[in-house]
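Session log. Operator J.P. requested a structure for one protein chain; no other inputs attached. Running the standard single-chain path with token output.
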Amino acid sequence: MKKFLKVLVLALVLAFLYFGFTTYPKLDLISGFSAKSVASGHFMDHRSLDLIQKTDNDIHLLDLATNTIDDVGKFATSAVYGLKERKAIYRDGLGALLINDDYDISKPYLLPKRTKLVNNLPFPYGNNEPKDTAFANVDYTKLKKAIDDSFDKNGGKAKRTRAVVVLYKDKLIGEKYDTGFNKDSKILGWSMTKSITSSAFGVLAKQGKIDIYKPAPIKEWQNDERKNITVNDLLHMNSGLEWEENYSTICDATQMLFQSEDMGKVQMDKPAKFKPNTHWYYSSGTTNLLSRILRGQFKTQQEYLDFWYSAVIDKIGMNSMIVEQDMSGTFVGSSYGWATPRDWSKFGLLYLHKGNWNGEQILDESWVKYTATPTNTSEGKYGAQFWLNAGGKFPDVPKDMFYCSGYQGQMVAIIPSLDMVIVRMGVKEEKPGFDFNGFLKGIISSVKK
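Structure written below.
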């Protein structure tokens, strides 16, 4: 018995030490991620805590968190085994904000001024219900099967698709939602928000208010080699700045999203690792730095807040969209854009039509071409805050496809050669979780050229 007890004690000690070395350092990130997820999902999309925990937070380590919601105070808290409690507050018009212990929740804040698009047009150019349209060259039975096959059946969790929207020749030809979601559900686009950030720069460029080929306007870089980094380099993720993006561990990206007060400053403070335009690699910090740079283009915080919506988002009727901020008041342009799947499809339609929205040229055609042109050293995978199929990542999809892409398999696919936009929202990445190539192939093959 004594020997058994010694072995048991040793096992417990080893387990405790293993937890201490592997998991404890992550607790602050886990509880921060969870609190932010709960607050955004509940207050922005009216999801129950049970639904969030079963469909948003049921991923490795995140499922260790214990979460609570205060509907009166409009905040959510999360902790792991009672440790490292984090809090996320909700502010109507701004979304949820993960805060630290020093954040003053009583300080006043500004709200973006929104203009709702009311033109009595059917979706997608208005917010009325779409008109029934039948194309002779669309095999609707095959299309329905391709969409249905992207969803789980009988409560499975292999594919975890939440929504699919298919536009063809400006018409809605396919749409489906998982249980608990519908056309009015706001869904987090994660890194699809990067493409929204890029579009804001596109409007500024069209207005002649920024030259993206000039060095980035950052005074802290003027006395070292970083002074040569241009806005173009940043848009292309080709700045050469040091960065680590690995969501399976503690890294620059996770610390930025779940611990930083000023997310754009995290990348700004990083040293140069390579010369600009020589090494492409993905960096959410770069996009938040771009958002910070964008903020500096305006005289007031109110102008900065309003611009994102008046220039693009509300201009094309994405009235459901909310882009959340960090604690410094800068939009988290890398990750925190929420919108309905239909509204995400509108953004794709804007780029499908080379920046033209129902007759109004919001972005220059040259900007859309720039967006979809491969970045140097990316091997045809990336443009300017958009992903590309130029390198043949999806072998059964036209190579002119470019797309917004987000964590856990969010996608707005834009296929100019087919006059098509395809939106898929879910909580599963690519193979072995979700077969994007097969999904896109199935939808595309339902349309005869």
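Operator note: The first helix runs from residue 2 to 22.
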